[in-house]
Design a protein that fits this description.
Elements lengths: L8 E5 L4 E6 L4 E7 L12 E8 L2 E10 L2 E12 L2 E10 L1 E4 L8 E4 L2 H4 E13 L5
């Protein structure tokens, strides 16, 4: 499906996190993501994102390091009624864990089943790039 819409612009989700798409040429997406959630491993970083789009479909990915280990996030979604509806997965390599209550926590690798977190977000455009002609 051909669209005249541009993905370029700033998008905010329901938690206040910002997705900045700076380029959408040739079916590719480039930009960065800043989470508003203080309990996220990506908090305080502008994490570079890359991805692809086709018509109303979009897919993005980012990787980064944090105080609680390395992690990757992917977003896959659709543009519906001017909103980017996405499903996301975060894969975390490690987590802080203490052997007993009162002992200091240490970073430990997590089992695969515990490494995955998933949910959905809705992004709304807060500023846009130019519409293609």
């Amino acid at each position: 499906m051909k669209t005249d819409m541009t993905w370029v612009g700033n998008w905010r989700n329901q938690f206040g996190s910002i997705l900045r798409i700076t380029d959408d040429a040739n079916g590719r997406i480039e930009g960065n993501f800043e989470t508003a959630l203080e309990d996220s491993g990506f908090y305080g970083q502008a994490v570079p994102i890359t991805g692809f789009h086709q018509g109303n479909c979009i897919a993005l990915v980012a990787v980064g390091a944090s105080a609680t280990g390395d992690r990757a996030v992917s977003y896959t979604g659709l543009l519906r009624d001017g909103k980017m509806q996405t499903a996301w997965f975060v894969i975390a390599d490690q987590a802080l864990s203490a052997f007993r209550e009162g002992e200091p926590a240490k970073l430990k690798p997590v089992n695969w089943w515990r490494a995955v977190t998933m949910n959905v977000d809705t992004f709304e455009r807060i500023s846009s790039g130019a519409t293609r002609t």
